[in-house]
Amino acid sequence: MSRLPSLFVVALPRSLSTLVYEQSCLALVLQQPLWTSGGEVLNVERFAIYGTGGLGLNYMTTKTYPERFDQTTAFLQHVVQPSGFAYKDVVQPFVMASWLRCPRAQLAVLKIASPVAHVASAMLARRWDYPRRAAHFRGDTVSQVIEGLVRAEQELERIPGESISFEELLESEHALAYALSRLYPGADITIPRYLTPGFIERRQQYRARRHCTAYRQIEERVAEMRALMFDAEGGGGAMSESVQQPTTCRNLFTMPGPRRATW
Question: Is the pTM for the entire model greater than 0.85?
């Protein structure tokens, strides 16, 4: 087994995190935990022993589920190996941020920075609305999902580690190799290879979606949410109780787009 420090990949959902995780495991010869898939140690729906039934409490915060938040942190402490393994999380950013901000000298952290508009549009198209659990404001589903994602993004940014952008991953395999070399100086790293014809086709589809009306409406709402949060929390104003809903924005749960894409 490798003696390299274990790696943790953290990101918002739909951010190429599985690709980054798998390529990183190959590049560094790190093991994947057999009891879950994709290295997702906090996604109970990925556990090998998971059957059918209720859904996991994704996007827990200390405010919404304080006891389970502490229990989940304790679970991480027990199961994560300090060396030789790679792990990933996209469903519990607040738990991960709290845990990884503590001194964990032996863990390497790779953060994927993705456009919130891309993540929100992809999740809403799949009717995944669990980020709204982290929302502070009252509003419609779209607003609360966006708010939850923005708050998760802010938490992930505070985690010590190496960052790589979604756009960098789209453009070049060498960007991931460089990020890994900064996390593991002196390690023998195999250059990732993932720019296949299928990947390039999905990249073109993603870039085309960025120009559609629905995507631009999401971008506008993300900008509005950032301004609202700054005014309420960073700008010294009082916290608003509601979010204005732009009348021009249609229901984004029905937004078009290829469902087979993985991001």
Answer: yes
